[in-house]
UniProtKB/TrEMBL annotation:
Domain Glucose-6-phosphate dehydrogenase C-terminal: 190-487
UniProt catalytic activity: D-glucose 6-phosphate + NADP(+) = 6-phospho-D-glucono-1,5-lactone + NADPH + H(+)
Protein name: Glucose-6-phosphate 1-dehydrogenase
Residues bound to NADP(+): 12-19, 46, 85-86, 148
EC category: oxidoreductase
Amino acid sequence: KENPTSLIVIFGATGDLAKRKLYPSIYRLYKNGSISKNFAVVGVARRPLTNEEFRSNVSKSVSSVANGDGNVEEFSSHFYYHPFDVTSSESYQQLKGLLGDLDSDYETNGNRIFYLAMAPEFFGTIATNLKSEGLTETDGWKRLVIEKPFGHNLPSAKDLNAEIRQAFDESEIYRIDHYLGKEMVQNIEVIRFANALFEPLWNNRYISNIQITSSEVLGVEDRGRYYENSGALRDMVQNHMLQMVALLAMEPPIKLNPEEIRSEKVKVLRAMRKIEQDDVEDYFVRGQYGAGFVDGDQVQGYREGNSVDPNSNTETYVAGKLLIDNFRWAGVPIYIRTGKRMSEKSTKIIVQFKDIPMNLYYNRGEKVDPNLLVINIQPEEGITLHLNAKKSGKDVTTTPIKLDYTNNCIDGINTPEAYERLIYDAMRGDMTNFTHWDEVALSWSFIDEISKAWENTRAFDFPNYESGSMGPKQADGLLEKDGFHWWPL
Ligand code: BG6
């Protein structure tokens, strides 16, 4: 199959995401020959910059991945800058002219990706103008890649969706959830469906509970303005955490195509038990970090951060218990937790299997640990199986053992960045690892009840966890009620 060729128009070209993730990822695709030489990138943003200035910024942002390779200038020469006012039709007309010229210069067959990586309040306006000013009329294909947040709740997500759907068909909309680009998140499907060992046990007869943790060491840093209106629930749970839940809990799809996979994921989200506002306390715990120590350094609490209300009610930590009401999962709690300024950066899924029917070693005073399947998403990538075996020696006593597989030890290379895969997929037209509107809508309708409950009641105990800790104590209570505990990471 030929490598894809396209123009990529990046709105928000001077922003952090473009610099940190998008340019380096496009560079890697270029370097390893995954995209054809027939491509050009048009950077769009408000700031006035010349092509030369823009190219030198791009070169700088790829320098660390280029590792001294001599092709950076050649790469940056594919980049063009268009200073732009989101609301002026003249700006769109000029951009249209530029795209027309580049289409023929680079022989990109009229293929266009419009990548929205700027402040979400402009997503709708841009999409509308792209259509009304004729930029979406092209001989090739057109695709809209759209960053989070996709709305702020269900009503605003619906509005945004209606706006973008006027200009793009659902099959042309690539909603980014960068967790779906992660190697080990994509591996969930393979571990489940390519092994005879797990799938027969993957249900409420053999699994007692599942724990998904995504902890971060960094605080909110300079994103206070965004975060104050978001909080951990919208920032991490609505998207990344629920996507992981859907992949873990879905039925085997009939085929591995985007439609079949998405439709199985949607079913999981539909079966997820809605939590009424009055019951939120029984199922969810919120937290906000106070001051503390990270790597031996004293750090400030969330409320002391820039652009943060000194009395902020915003949560920087969420733990919750989810229930999926279907035949496979009835009665199996899925616990999730995510937070900022925790003791380590780690994303892990732990599947805890039920106890053996009878412990033959019990009379000897031996407790046998349950089997765990740990899927390490990051920073380590791999899987670990916790089993029990005989302790070597004369006596037959048990000891816990671990079977470990670490991706990077075997392959010896760094797996590609999530964004590298996602940009590549968008260019190839593979929508599997992007979120369908139905998934977005269902996740918001689940999340909205919880955020309403939290907006309506002040968290008087905030801040309730120290920076550098594993979150508020109440999160332990959530599992203890059910006779479980969080497994250490
Ligand atoms: C983003 C959130 O979607 O995901 C950030 O907006 C968060 O707040 C980030 O830090 C975490 O991503 P990763 O890949 O570092 O786990």
